[in-house]
Amino acid sequence: MNEHQQSHINFGICFSRFFCKQNLTPTFSWDGLIEISTKPKDPKKITCPKSNSLAFTIEDLDYPNGMGESGNSVFLHYWAVDIPGDWTSFDASKTGLIKNGSNLKLVHEGMTSPDRVKSDGSGLLDTSMVPICPKKGIHRYRFTLYALKGELSTGDSRLAEDAPFGSVAGALDGNKLAKFVSFAKIAGNPMNVVA
Length: 195
Description:
Layout: E1 2-4, E2 9-10, E3 13-14, E4 28-31, H1 33-38, E5 53-63, E6 73-84, E7 89-90, E8 108-109, E9 138-148, H2 166-175, E10 176-187
Antiparallel strand pairs: 1-4, 2-3, 4-7, 5-6, 5-9, 6-8, 9-10
């Protein structure tokens, strides 16, 4: 699976348009799923199953103080599941699409924190990316794209709008056909301010 990083990462450095910005959905594109899905490892064996669903996560591995500092933990900036397996890109224009014959969203953008609500006063839950805006140290960011056997939210087993990532993390590993991981390093700056 090949991941096109131009719109999000450039040689390990996120473009400045993603720094410290609120209410963003990441832009990401990829290819190579067809090859993974249909080429057998051995012509005498059955082909690999086709990916029916994708998932995407962005994590800061050195939150909040930067690499090598005490008190750090992994911080989840964004996650989305049930991305259709035939898509080759993901951006804000696709997050509101509705499944055919239903009123259900095609993609489930997940909550990174139960107390995040939109800043527009609507009281709606905020599923946009938590801004990448480190204040100090060097931070390693992990971008993971999962190819999955099927959707995590189906039929009567819909994910709740406020479902925490912990409720789907095990299902990602259990349904995983392939996983692509990319890293970026970003230097913190005490002058960084979320806009």
